[in-house]
Aminopeptidase P family protein
Amino acid sequence: MKADLERADLDRHRRVQRLAYRCAEEVAAGLEPGVTERETTRRMRRWLLANGVDDWFHVPFAWFGDRTAFRGFRLPHQFLPTARPLAEGMPYVLDVAPIVDGYVADIGYSGCLGPNPVWERLYADLAEYRGFILDLVRRRRRFAEIYDEVDALATRQGYDNRHQVYPGRVIGHQVGRLTSRLPRVVVARSFGLRTLETIGRELVKERFEGRSPLWNNARSSDHPPTPGLWAVEPHIGFRTRTPGAVGAKFEELLVVTEDDAHWLDDDLPHVRRWAAGEVTSRA
């Protein structure tokens, strides 16, 4: 994973990110009551393979209802898609990380099937995190401090930090072009083998430099933003310990340089919806 990304590399990552979001939008538009998380991820996988995807950073995930807030999640297998059916008024999160010719994207897409005022408020409030995180990175605040600032923002809004439930408690992770020659296979129904090999190599390399390719609030992230490409995924939830729990997130790629930062692409579904002041229940 190169820290200094060339414009051509960024263009290729941008194309893969847009492909992933097109998949999420088209699959979301076809969701209907009764469809399960497993069927939804199959639809995403088929769509992406038919549109040029040749490997996975991680395979598609889908979470419905209170699972969008990771209610009761404690073990890795609980993130895998289940037979949970979608119903009217139920929120959902689609998350996929495809690879094309080694170029990676990792996206999160939130929506709701039919009206749900709680989700609509949560999703509208999620808009603040995009500019908030970018501003802190541009100010060269330490990654661990930014994590804690995001946690504090969620608390002020009346929500719970749900990215703390992800493996490694990550709000983000570094990505880049994968050049591994290992077979293109999926391990434990989740991550590509080449992804795991690359992450393992980067963990060792960054540890020697006092950093980590995983962004959380641990000591390994207590350093200024590392130049490179980062998949950032703030995830918030409401009533996370109840059957009526609701969660929402976005995930997209952030470009960090030695002295600045910018989102890789501003023409994304959640950005357009927030800019237009539209939070539709069918999103």
Summary: The first helix runs from residue 7 to 29. The radius of gyration is 18 Å.
